[in-house]
UniProtKB/TrEMBL annotation, chain A:
Native organism taxonomy: Eukaryota, Metazoa, Chordata, Craniata, Vertebrata
SUPFAM superfamilies referenced in this protein's UniProt entry, alphabetically: PDZ domain-like
Protein name: Tax1-binding protein 3
Main localization, broad class: membrane
Keywords: Acetylation, Cell membrane, Cytoplasm, Membrane, Nucleus, Phosphoprotein, Wnt signaling pathway
Automatic annotation (TrEMBL), chain B:
Compositional bias (Low complexity): 1-14
Keyword annotations of the record: Cell membrane, Membrane, Transmembrane, Transmembrane helix
Protein name according to UniProt: Vang-like protein
Region Disordered: start-end pairs: 1-77
A GO CC term attached to the entry: plasma membrane
Topology class, membrane: Multi-pass membrane protein
Compositionally skewed regions (Basic and acidic residues) per UniProt: 27-43, 58-68
Family recorded in the similarity comment: Belongs to the Vang family.
Parts of the chain that traverse the membrane: 107-129, 149-168, 180-201, 216-238
Principal location listed in the UniProt entry: membrane
Length: 130, 526
């Protein structure tokens, strides 16, 4: 999950589709995010590289839609519905995830175990996103 | 003249009793003599730290000389020491010591300077006066321009006099072993200068009876101008040049390791030595021989553990070295517990000192509560039962000394300072503190910390130091030089290091550029 400035970012990602749950007046997804280009990356407990300013999943409501869809704590969100999430501010990320007219969010997330799994299963077809 | 060396056996007055002091003086003198003689591999010369003026015109040094020094001073002026054996030198110095009570050589240079200065000051006046006296009739009258020159001459002479008084007429601080090069240079310059002026004057004016008086006055004025410039040169060479720091001197006392660092300018070694000694007397804590060594009880235990027997038929030389080597090896193998004892003894000593210090402080505080200063404007009504008697400081000191005397004595014994403070001196100090409204703590500061050496010094007598150096003592300081100043009991080793060259660069910070951001870490639930 480290990046070289100037080079395209490559990572092994997983597609996760979450159906928003209606809770009162709001549509909730059931997880919390942290990070962003306007935040302090040194305090992120989940990132390998402490200069990584991406959006990370910091908490998952057990039994919520995100948990059911397979999102895990510590995942880094790379795309939301096609929009890039690696270089966004925290507020922008929140807005992308909480659009009122969308019921479904399709995320591309990456985590370290994915890369390891790909390496282990050498014959598998890794889905790489650049 | 180059290899001449002098030393003078000024005695070192401590606060010991008179009879022991005399024995000590004699012993010190003998010891210092033999010590100085053995230091001949390096060029060993002595410094007497009492004084020699820098460049004085009129010397007034007779007043501050101690009148009694004649009986205890000795001077040795030896000749070249290269080819004289030790015994010869000892014999010569012993003879001379008995026969030369006065130190003439010290007065030679200031006297020379004084004569020369006086001569130089009188010269312009002589230049003006001689034509008037000798051939007044044939002189052309010169009106206003001459009077203007007279005025300027007078004021310049006045300024010359005042600045000579300010700069050069000071009590001498030290007598140096070698010539003070700058001073000699200046004296030679003044002499040459005045001599050449006199030569010209003699040939052109006196011989030919010059009638242009205005020219003569202008000539005298130019002499005074040049004298002022020479004085400026003297000021720069003697006073100003060494003010900018260039070297860092590390001074370590060999007896107990007390060390200081000083920044000095460009000095010659002997001048730097005088400067270091000036700082030594006010910075270094006093040398206390009683505090030096580990108690014998700790050290001697190591040696008595093994007895080595001579078994073989080796010859004596092999035997002795073998013996000592085996002893050393055996001692090294033995488990060494002396550090333990040292530690415990130190702790015990410290505890004892602290206890006595606490007792002393309490006793002094209590004693000070017994007296208070009498205010004149207080109501003088006193009850007939307790009439207040007014005491002067001496009596007040005596009155309150008794309760604290014992505690003070025990404390001084514990810190081994009892030789530096006699009862008389404590009483005097107490009287001094009372008259100046000092608190008990201020009274005690003199005893709780060992002060600088100057505090215990009898300043009427000079101090004798020996400067030991490998380089000639008139060379200027350089990196890596080491010289030492020794007394019979200890010495100060001085190491020279240059101050680093500083390269300063500038960085401009716009005051508006001080901006801050919060280090955020928000967590939002979606």
């Amino acid at each position: 999950m480290s990046f070289i400035p100037g080079q395209p970012v490559t990572a092994v990602v997983q597609r996760i589709e979450i159906m928003k749950l209606r809770h009162g007046d709001n549509l909730i997804l059931g997880f919390s995010i942290g990070g962003g280009i306007d935040q302090d990356p040194g305090q992120n407990p989940f990132s390998e590289d402490k200069t990584d300013k991406g959006i990370y999943v910091t908490r998952i409501t057990p039994g919520g839609p995100a948990h059911d869809a397979g999102l895990r704590m510590g995942d880094k969100i790379m795309q939301v519905n096609g929009w890039d999430m690696t270089v966004v501010t925290h507020d922008k990320a929140r807005k992308r995830l909480t659009k009122k007219d969308e019921d479904v969010v399709r995320l591309l997330v990456t985590r370290k175990s994915l890369e390891q799994a790909v390496k282990q299963s050498m014959g598998g077809c890794p889905q790489t996103v650049t | 003249m180059d290899n001449e060396s002098t030393y003078s056996g000024y005695s070192y007055k401590s606060s010991h009793s008179r009879s022991s002091r005399k024995h000590r003086e004699r012993r010190d003198r003998q010891r210092s003599k033999s010590r100085d003689i053995t230091l001949r591999g390096d060029k060993s010369v002595t410094i007497q730290a009492t004084g020699e003026p820098l460049l004085d015109a009129e010397s007034t040094r007779g007043d501050d000389r101690d009148d009694n020094w004649g009986e205890t001073n000795t001077v040795v002026t030896g000749t070249s020491v290269d080819s004289v054996s030790n015994e010869d030198l000892a014999r010569i110095s012993k003879d001379l010591e008995d026969s030369l009570p006065l130190d003439c050589r010290r007065y030679l240079s200031p006297a020379l300077g004084a004569i020369l200065g006086l001569f130089a000051l009188v010269t312009p006046l002589a230049f003006l006066a001689l034509p008037q006296l000798l051939w007044r009739d044939t002189l052309e009258p010169c009106g206003t321009p001459c009077e203007g020159l007279y005025i300027s001459l007078a004021f310049k002479l006045l300024i010359l006099l005042i600045s000579t008084w300010a700069l050069f007429l000071r009590p001498p601080r030290a007598s140096l072993p070698r010539f003070f090069i700058f001073r000699c240079l200046l004296l030679a310059l003044v002499f040459l200068f005045v001599a050449s002026y006199w030569l010209f004057y003699g040939v052109r004016v006196l011989d030919s009876r010059e009638t242009d008086y205005r020219g003569i006055v202008g000539y005298a004025a130019s002499l005074v101008d040049a004298l002022l410039f020479i004085q400026y040169l003297a000021l720069v060479l003697l006073e100003v040049r060494h003010l900018q720091p260039a070297f860092c001197l590390k001074v370590v006392r060999t007896s107990d390791g007390a060390s200081r660092f000083y920044n000095v300018g460009c000095f010659s070694i002997q001048r730097a030595a005088v400067w270091v000694l000036d700082q030594y007397y006010s910075d270094f804590p006093v040398y206390n021989p009683a505090l030096l060594n580990l108690p014998k009880s700790i050290l001697s235990k190591k040696m008595s553990a093994f007895k080595v027997y001579n078994l073989g038929e080796e010859n004596s030389t092999n035997n002795s070295t073998g013996q000592s080597r085996s002893m050393i090896a055996a001692n090294a193998r033995k488990r060494d517990n002396s550090h333990n004892e040292y530690y415990y003894e130190e702790a015990e000593l410290e505890r004892r000192v602290r206890k006595r210090k606490a007792r002393l402080v309490v006793a002094v505080e209590e004693a000070f509560t017994h007296i208070k200063r009498h205010q004149d404007d207080e109501a003088t009504v006193s009850s007939p039962k307790h009439p207040r008697e007014l005491m002067d400081p001496r009596e007040a000191a005596q009155a309150i000394f008794a309760p604290m005397a014992r505690a003070m004595q025990k404390y001084l014994r514990a810190t081994r300072q009892q030789s530096y403070h006699s009862m008389e001196s404590i009483m005097n100090h107490l009287q001094f503190c009372i008259s100046h409204n000092m608190t008990p703590k201020a009274f005690l500061e003199c005893y709780l910390t060992p002060g600088p050496t100057l505090q215990y010094l009898d300043t009427s007598r000079g101090r004798q130091w020996t400067l030991v150096s490998e380089a000639p003592v008139t060379t200027s300081l350089r990196q890596g030089q080491v010289f030492s100043l020794s007394r019979p009991d200890f010495s100060l080793v001085v190491t020279v290091a240059p101050l680093p060259f500083l390269r300063l660069s500038e960085e401009f910070i716009d005051p508006k550029s001080h901006k801050f951001v919060m280090k955020l870490q928000s967590e939002t639930s979606v």
